[in-house]
Request: fold
Amino acid sequence: MKIFKCEACGNAVHFENTICVRCDHRLGFATDQCVLSALELDGDFWVTLSDPSRRYLFCANEEFGACNWLVAADEGEAFCHSCRHNRTLPDLGVAANLFAWRKIELAKRRLFYSLLRWGLPTHERDVENSNGLAFDLLADMPTANGVAPVLTGHENGLITLNIAEAHDAEREARRLSMGEPYRTLLGHFRHEIGHYYWELLVRDGGCVEQCRALFGDEDEDYAQALQRYYQSGPSIDWELRFISAYATSHPWEDFAETWAHYTHMVDALETARAFGLAIGFALPEQTGASAPAPFDPYCAGDIDDLIAAWVPVTVALNGLNRSLGQPDIYPFVLSNTVIEKLNFIHHLIRDARSSNDAKTGFANIGESEPGTSLQGQR
Reply:
């Protein structure tokens, strides 16, 4: 994620900010400019200081404190590119649900930021496109026999997320019970969207055989595969071939876990770039080497460029955490097989981006040099 600058006063502002703390300007994220911009009113509309010629409205969910994205005035839409995909929401009259939903929407907007940077298709779900992308954000429902739990998952473009995941204590309890190294709202979204793009880019894109050669035969019975995984767990040497233990459960889950990890890498590298972070040292056996020159990871031409930039950052992050008595923030191993899978995702996204560029206008926007200093409901 980039770091943005208030055009009114030059203060650093961040993706989730709604007001500049230095000059009190309203802030809004314009997807057509890929920028969080200071705003001024122009009659009934907002204009960005980054481009005063464009007029906007806030997403309808701004009134609930749940969205800071803008909608171009000529779009004829009430909701932004993230919120318009919501199909079902919990009862927002319940304070705990409203709190959880706000956190969930922030994570979802970070997901959509990456999708828009790549120019990936995000077809809306409607009568003509029943497999379009949509979200059901649901709360567990009490029943006469207890509680009917909501299961997070994906089916034919519909992503369901249990809003209980927004509560840190509940999410941590689930992480421990599942034996996961980490569990985040953003990670859920990135994993589930991986299933959506398997259908859209692999199955419908004619890449099944290439994908199967790396991830395995997806025709394996899914329910039986999951049952076997939860009963027996992964093989002892799973790290040689998979990015996570859960990726071993079924080829679909391997693809989704790898997709999510690729997205983690690219977005974290953009954040490092935005902060001007350069790892000027290498591992002991590489003494004298230096980190690659800063580049935009969303436009990387080769997976080797991403890996070369990523590994030193993870080593530094883990070292910092250990210095603070914390566990490794990046407890993953990038084996050669895993890198091959990441490379498949890399080319899948790059090819989809190339074919979608002319349709979206989002790809290749908002690319700037890294910074070096910091100061409706649908």
